[in-house]
Fold Thiamine ABC transporter substrate-binding protein.
Amino acid sequence: MSTTKKCVAVAVGLGLVTLSACTSSDSGSGEGASESKTVTVVSHDSWAASKSVISDFEKQSGYQVKVLKDGDAGQALNKAILTKDNPQGDVLFGVDNTLLSRAFDNDLFQPYQAKDSDLLPPEYRIDRQKQRVTPVDFGDICVNYDKAYFEEKGLTPPESFDDLVKPEYKDLLVTENASTSSPGLGFLLGTAAKYGDGGTSRSSEAESGGGWQDYWTKLKANGVKVVDGWEQAYNEEFSGSAGGKKAKGDRPLVVSYASSPPAEVVFAEPKPDTAPTGVAYGTCFRQVEYAGLLSNAKNAKGGKALIDFLISLKFQADMPLNMFVYPMREDAQIPEEFTKYGAPAEDSEIISPKEIAKNRDQWVKSWTSLVLK
């Protein structure tokens, strides 16, 4: 293991952000390595944290925090796997339950039981035997709708997966590619959880008798549009987005998150009294994000301290209005703006990581053949 912390050159499009200066104090790196004053977290592009909160960690720990933003969750994981022998950082944050088995299969993480991890909900601590990852936050991938469009048309917004294949919603939905996008994959998994695989329906109310494949055949026939990623879907294709740099799209339904409406309110100037977008809560899939100490981390000691910090009350309470996710700790205070406009789904579809690992690649392959060809 290297005895010094080295800066890593990365490809164009990868963000490198240094968040304030550190104070000097003793800090160790990996086993047998010399001191390092820097701890690096590799994450997706949605990483965000208040500078004051990061500064508090730096003052208390003596480490300087660097963040490498590496595309969406899938892209960040793929790069971490490719560079695992000489990793870009010490901690990977943002690998979710849809992709977690891929990280485990590639021996990406080393064991570490985070301080206060026993305070986290047990249903999300899925790797308690080996302690390779720590759950940090959760959110719901759901269809969002443009309220103004449906009010203008005198049309009731859809509420469920079944609604989306009805004629009145033809050519209204845009979603992300399940093979390239985390929310796109989550939406596919939501339909698999709802309708089963190849005829094994999990819902007596399901209109589809041929599993998720039959459902997507109907959705395709009803004009669903597929784009590469969330940024394009939400900010370019969706008619209800206020955050895009380009002209609004013409699709009033988009696969996004239950937390997207509060984001529309928080970032609007002036702030509206109500969110301009709504959530079809019958279309949600629960997404859980994890953090893990990379197997060949150059600063393992700093990485452990950072993971402890990610589930501290201070960082957990800071997450909602920065990354628009729900904190994992139930005792973390959630801002009123977030709870008022972005309540989590009460009955999200869920698939166990074990079942996702067993079926994900084949489901994505089948989905690609069915929907994109």
